[in-house]
Design brief:
The chain has 490 residues and is α/β, with parallel strands linked by helices. It contains 14 helices and 15 strands. The strands form two sheets. The protein has an eleven-stranded mixed β-sheet with strand order 11-15-10-9-8-7-6-5-12-13-14, with helices on one face. InterPro entries: 4Fe4S-binding_SPASM_dom (IPR023885), Aldolase_TIM (IPR013785), Elp3/MiaA/NifB-like_rSAM (IPR006638), Radical_SAM_PqqE_MftC-like (IPR050377), rSAM (IPR007197), rSAM_sf (IPR058240).
Length: 490
């Protein structure tokens, strides 16, 4: 695998995004900070300061350098420790490419869960060849779309799954994979341990067999725990839980279970009424039930002082979770579909979001480049141009979509442009309480995390691989906030 610069600066209409390969995170910067980074990519800090006559400008550059240095952005001699992508056309109103692409690698599964977002499986489709997947990965790398989520179905049903992962790594992508865990053997666990993944998600839906097996099938809980005992000996992994009405009373026990089985993190996200879950909407908690479950997790983290858990809010579907980057990374509220992410089906169909149905398919990567689809397809342009409402003021063009999840709006309210019922609950709760109510996907660190790759020589470490810290407050030294993962897989 070729050695690559740890940082990639990707020009954007607002300035730039810097992708940090050591943490698999994007950090956005304004135009002025971007200009300084460009100059520091060619010359060390002393030279840049020496050629800057204006005293105020010198002070600004020094402040930016201190901020960048704290992020681990520099080599020993004070140069930007990265490369600048100069071969991209920068559109005036959206990103040069998605931050994350979710690739469905298989449309079959060895389970039949009652809440599966993938819908009824198997689907008989001609899946992309390895050559076509490799071409897609090359396009992603060119666009600066480095985050890759490998989904299904059950990805481990593919005998060539590690070849796909290796192809992604060869192109400099940061892959994650979600599995139900049943097919993990010692050989597979060792193969995972050899590779640097952002997330290796193993799904469970409860802290007890009774709760989990109610939605995943009889016997799955015990079998998965048995497989986790093998996996923990060879690779780091995450336990991924879906918050549903069936497990609301076990959420804190789920976090404790993750700690007990040796998971690196535990991820909690709400059930979305898509796929099979559209027929089982009784499983979906209300917004109030969801936030109360999260409050319980927060209390657990505060009370467990002997072995504290690190609580982080990174839900892309909350209009309040990205206040630093809102109107900077994209121009509408909350939803990243077609703005930050896209999905590619097993047969190559490209959709703004995997939660949206086939009627939103824009084109197929067999016939059209990812760049052409991202920039020019009618489906992507339409979802970016949908009218929206400011969730705080209630004002906006046609006073409609106010953040949240477009797919949830579609299923529960009949249109992707309708208000998301959850966000309507959230705004009402905030107005009653006078304070912001978060609707986060929550990540708990349940064991010590250490960097698996070294920071630049002479630079400050940026934190552990896969971490999701912030790069600074809006406007601070040119940083525009954090832009990490979107969901637990890319």
């Amino acid at each position: 695998m070729p050695e690559r610069a740890p940082l990639v600066l990707i020009p954007q209409f607002f300035g730039s995004l810097v992708f940090d390969r050591r943490t698999s995170r994007y950090l956005p910067f304004d135009a002025e900070a971007t200009d300084v980074l460009r100059r520091l990519s060619a010359r060390p800090i002393d030279h840049v300061l020496g050629e800057t006559a204006d005293a105020d400008r010198r002070v600004l550059i020094e402040r930016l350098f201190e901020h960048f240095y704290d992020l681990g952005f520099f080599t020993v001699d004070g140069r930007f420790a990265g490369v600048v992508k100069e071969d991209l056309d920068v559109p005036p109103d959206h990103l040069t490419g998605p931050l994350a692409v979710h690739l469905e690698v298989i449309a079959s599964c060895n389970l039949g869960c009652t809440h599966c977002f993938a819908g009824d499986l198997p689907r008989r489709e001609k899946r992309l060849s390895l050559e076509e997947i490799d071409r897609l990965f090359a396009e992603m790398a060119h666009l600066g779309s480095f985050r890759l989520g490998l989904t299904g179905g059950e990805p481990l049903l593919r005998k060539d799954i590690f070849r796909i992962i290796d192809m992604a790594l060869d192109h400099g992508l940061a892959p994650c994979i979600t599995t139900n865990g049943l097919l993990i053997t010692e050989e597979i666990a060792k193969e995972f341990g050899k590779r640097e993944l952002v997330w290796l998600n193993v799904s469970l839906e409860g802290a007890t067999a009774e709760t989990n097996d109610r939605v995943r099938g009889p016997g799955t809980f015990a079998k998965v725990l048995d497989r986790l005992a093998v996996l923990r000996e060879h690779a780091r992994f995450t336990l991924a839980f879906t918050i549903m009405r069936t497990n609301l009373e076990e959420i804190d026990a789920c976090a404790e279970l993750a700690h007990r089985v040796g998971a690196d993190t535990a991820v909690f996200r709400p059930l979305y009424p898509v796929g099979v879950a559209e027929r089982n909407q009784e499983l979906m908690p209300s917004f109030a039930e969801y936030t109360e479950a999260l409050n319980g997790l927060a209390r657990l983290g505060r009370d467990n002082l002997d072995d504290p858990l690190d609580l982080r809010h990174i839900d892309p579907f909350s209009p309040y979770s990205r206040q630093e980057t809102q109107s900077v990374i994209h121009q509408n509220y909350g939803c990243g579909a077609g703005n930050l992410v896209c999905s590619v089906s097993v047969s190559g169909d490209v959709n703004p979001c995997s939660f949206l149905g086939p009627e939103f398919v824009a084109a197929n990567v067999r016939d059209t480049s990812l760049a052409e689809i991202w920039h020019h397809s009618a489906g992507f342009r339409a979802i970016r141009d949908l009218p929206h409402t400011d969730p705080a003021s209630g004002h906006g063009q046609n006073a409609t979509f106010a953040g949240g999840c477009r797919a949830r709006s579609l299923v529960l309210a009949g249109s992707v442009n309708a208000p998301d019922p959850w966000i309507s609950e959230q705004v009402a709760a905030e107005r009653r309480s006078g304070s912001a109510v978060r609707n986060p996907l929550v990540v708990f660190d349940v064991s010590a995390r250490r960097p698996r790759t070294a920071p630049c020589q002479g630079a400050q470490p940026t934190g552990s691989h896969g971490s999701h810290g912030s790069c600074g407050a809006h406007g601070s030294c040119g940083a525009l906030g954090s832009c990490g993962s979107h969901g637990s897989c890319g």
